[in-house]
TrEMBL record, chain A:
Subcellular location: Cell membrane
Keywords: Cell membrane, Membrane, Phosphotransferase system, Sugar transport, Transmembrane, Transmembrane helix, Transport
GO cellular component: plasma membrane
Top-rank taxon, per record: Bacteria
GO BP annotations, alphabetical order: phosphoenolpyruvate-dependent sugar phosphotransferase system
InterPro entries: EIIC-GAT, PTS_EIIC_2, PTS_sugar-sp_permease
Protein name: PTS galactitol transporter subunit IIC
Main subcellular localisation: membrane
Lineage: Bacteria, Bacillati, Bacillota, Bacilli, Bacillales
From TrEMBL, chain B:
Protein name: PTS galactitol transporter subunit IIB
Keyword Heme in annotation: no
Phylogenetic placement of the source organism: Bacteria, Bacillati, Bacillota, Bacilli, Bacillales
Keywords: Transferase
Superkingdom of origin organism: Bacteria
GO molecular function: protein-N(PI)-phosphohistidine-sugar phosphotransferase activity
Ranges in coiled-coil conformation: none
CDD domains according to UniProt: PTS_IIB_galactitol
Gene Ontology biological process: phosphoenolpyruvate-dependent sugar phosphotransferase system
Domain PTS EIIB type-2 intervals: 2-91
The keyword Transferase is annotated on this UniProt entry: yes
Length: 448, 91
């Protein structure tokens, strides 16, 4: 037993870039991948870790001094650098217990289908990482791995229940029958619904606006290189840099934002044979049954309203990060708040004006959640050796998806009074959401 | 070599899933093509240099190159049909 323990520790100490690929190769062989393909996928995974490490290190090196200069110049302390979801995913996959979430999610989905508690088969196995990340956050607060996995399982259940409720609305937006979105970001819709319920009653906020013309005009600001260059330049000036230094920072920021997705897709490339094998397995089990297929959020990415909302929220996010007392997050790689705009799209049914208001109202919640979870994210990055972090550098994700339930679960995991009360309120909100969506689904199916 | 692009919200997850799947299908059929996952926010920049666009969203715009239904590759429903269309386009 001691020998086994020391072997495991030895491999863990080699860091995520060796440990996770090794695990991936073993799992690949177990699920019957060809040896060549299993090794291929495993090595790509290692490349993804090293690549992300390089870009995150590059980003921290460029941004942290600017953030520190800003703090000295203005007293505004924004030293938690936002690495976006690609950074969060990298750190999450490096967690030694990450892969355990696959069988847990499959079992939950299988049982819920079997007992007719859901109609959705979630085939989006990439976003298992969101549940692992939830477990990581709960683990960081409570220190208890069992509670962490229970909390992550709650998310997996809620995702499926919401995927059922949202299916018709999503079909209306995408025009694709039989599919829904199982991404956890839509859990935020539960908290947005009461706000929208109020806004809907005000005549002004029911105006239709043409999002496509607007997107045509401002769409360029959402392109990674352009957005990075602008944020870098603004940050350089805010930090009191000379024009030359600000221009250099601007181009470095553009480079980081452009490179992040290029490298992050290597994770997907490595994991896709595994997720395909699991999908085939699940589909075979539930063949011939009428089901909704649960997919990742980008099937909604054709919605102009989503992009216009995301882009118009950027200046508010930057402004709020500077003026909100207690915020420590410097929005950067994660500044596009997809996890706010997409649930807002579902809640409002695509009303641009209300989506915008919900996004602006929701932004402080995201910034505070990111501030709150910064130390956990930074510590995990260090302890797994997934990312090399220098003294004084801090990492976070400014737009942590479904922040509300994640916060509640960490509090509930510690069994605080606050946690229990918030959980009760959340359940009531969920009941309200279900009632509202059931009503809407009736209307939607009549008009069809 | 002809170029096929798949776009999603970030050019990372869904698009790469579809791209990997399409790559494997094409390998089986011994068809050579360059399949790339791209960011939908920069789609316009990629369309010009590509031959086929595999879309996973409802298209609000018409593009100059043939567009295929990427959802088929995700769900498996209608995948044979879309594969055949792709093969014809790559001939």
């Amino acid at each position: 037993m001691d020998i086994l323990q020391s072997v495991v520790n030895y491999i863990l100490d080699l860091g995520a870039e060796v440990f996770v690929p090794a695990l991936m190769i073993i799992i690949g062989l177990i699920v019957g991948m060809k040896v060549r393909n299993a090794f291929n996928a495993g090595i790509i995974l290692g490349v993804a870790f090293i690549g992300m490490n390089l870009v995150i290190g590059f980003m921290l090196e460029a941004i942290t001094p600017a953030a520190q200069a800003l703090a000295e110049l203005t007293g505004i302390n924004l030293t938690a650098v936002d690495g976006g979801w690609t950074t969060a995913a990298t750190i999450t996959w490096a967690w030694p217990y990450a892969f355990l979430m696959f069988p847990i999610q499959l079992a939950i989905n299988g049982i819920m289908l079997l007992f007719n508690w859901t109609k959705t088969l979630n085939v989006d196995l990439w976003n298992v990482w969101g549940k692992i990340f939830t477990a990581v956050l709960i683990m960081g607060i409570t220190g208890n791995m069992y509670i962490a996995f229970v909390g992550a399982s709650v998310v997996a259940v809620v995702e499926l229940l919401l995927a059922d409720l949202n299916q018709l609305q999503i079909e209306k937006v995408t025009g694709i029958p039989g599919v829904t979105v199982t991404h956890g970001m839509n859990i935020l819709a539960v908290s947005l619904m009461p706000l929208d319920w109020v806004l809907r009653r005000i005549k002004l906020f029911n105006k239709k606006m043409d999002a496509s013309a607007l997107r045509e005009k401002i769409g360029v600001f959402a392109e990674n290189n352009v957005m990075g260059a602008i944020i870098g330049l603004l940050l350089g000036f805010a930090a009191g840099y000379s024009v030359a230094d600000a221009l250099i920072l601007s181009m470095q920021a553009a480079a980081a934002l452009t490179l992040f997705p290029m490298i992050a897709k290597l994770f997907m490339e490595a994991l896709s044979p595994l997720s395909e094998a699991i999908n085939e397995f699940m589909k075979k089990r539930f063949k011939g049954r009428e089901m909704f297929i649960g997919l990742d959020w980008p099937i909604l990415a054709g919605s102009n309203e989503v992009w216009v909302t995301i882009i118009l929220t950027i200046p508010f996010t930057l402004l709020l990060s500077f003026i909100l007392p207690g915020n420590e997050v410097l929005p950067f790689a994660g500044i596009l708040n997809i996890g706010l705009a997409v649930p807002a799209l579902i809640v409002t049914g695509g009303n641009l004006l209300r989506m915008l208001i919900l996004s602006i109202l929701g932004t402080p919640v995201f910034l505070y959640a990111a501030t709150y979870f910064t130390d956990i994210i930074t510590n995990l990055a260090e302890s797994t050796n997934a990312v090399k972090i220098e003294e004084g550098q801090r990492l976070t994700w400014s737009t942590i998806e479904y922040p509300v339930i994640r916060y509640i679960l960490t509090e509930l995991g510690s069994l605080t009074i606050l946690g229990i009360s918030l959980a009760v309120i959340w359940v009531l909100l969920f009941i309200f959401y279900r009632q509202q969506m059931t009503k809407r689904n009736k209307e939607l199916s009549i008009t069809e | 070599m002809k170029k096929v692009i798949v776009a999603c919200g970030s050019g990372v997850a869904t698009s790469q899933t579809v791209a990997s799947k399409v790559k494997r299908v094409l390998e089986e059929k011994k068809v050579r093509a360059d399949v790339q996952a791209v960011d939908i926010k920069s789609l316009e920049n990629y369309i010009k240099s590509s031959d086929v666009y595999i879309s996973i969203t409802k298209n609000t715009k018409e593009y100059d190159i043939p567009t295929l239904n990427g959802i088929a590759f995700l769900t498996g429903m209608g995948i044979e049909q879309e594969t055949q269309k792709l093969l014809d386009l790559l001939k």
